[in-house]
Amino acid sequence: MIHDSNLSRFKSEIQSTQEHQFSLLRRDTEKLRIELQRETEKIRTELQRETEKIRTELRYQIDKVTVGQKAESANLNNKLDQVSHAMREQLEAAKYDVIKYSIGTLVSISAVGLAVIRILM
Question: Is the whole-model pTM more than 0.90?
Fold first, then answer.
């Protein structure tokens, strides 16, 4: 009987110890889970911050390249306009020379024609 009583008490102690250990384990697990969630959120926030920094830097670089391209495009347009204007001036000068020489030729032919008519008459 004493033996059964001791055995019963021993079982009770073991069960109590197991429940206590299980309770401690559950509490530690819950603490770890909460800490893991906190760290996960911290890392997520940090990752979002870094992602935003990278996006901002990329936007800056894109804007910088775009401004450079616009300036280069404007410069090329100006050069193209200058070349076009110079070619128009050359064309107008050539056209003026052709008209001038044509009129000179017509006047010369007319003078020769009148001289021939005068000689023949």
Answer: no
Residue closest to 30 by CA, chosen among 18, 22, 41: 22
- Give the integer Cα–Cα distance in Å for 17 and 62: 66
User: Is residue 96 pLDDT above 80, yes or no?
Assistant: yes
Q: How far apart are the first and last CA of the chain?
A: 174
Query: Tokens representing 51?
Result: 């992602």
| DSSP string for 13-29 | HHHHHHHHHHHHHHHHH
Please spell the DSSP secondary structure of 46-82, one letter per residue: HHHHHHHHHHHHHHHHHHHHHHHHHHHHHHHHHHHHH
Task: Give me Rg for the CA atoms of the chain.
Answer: 51
Average pLDDT over every residue of 5-12: 82
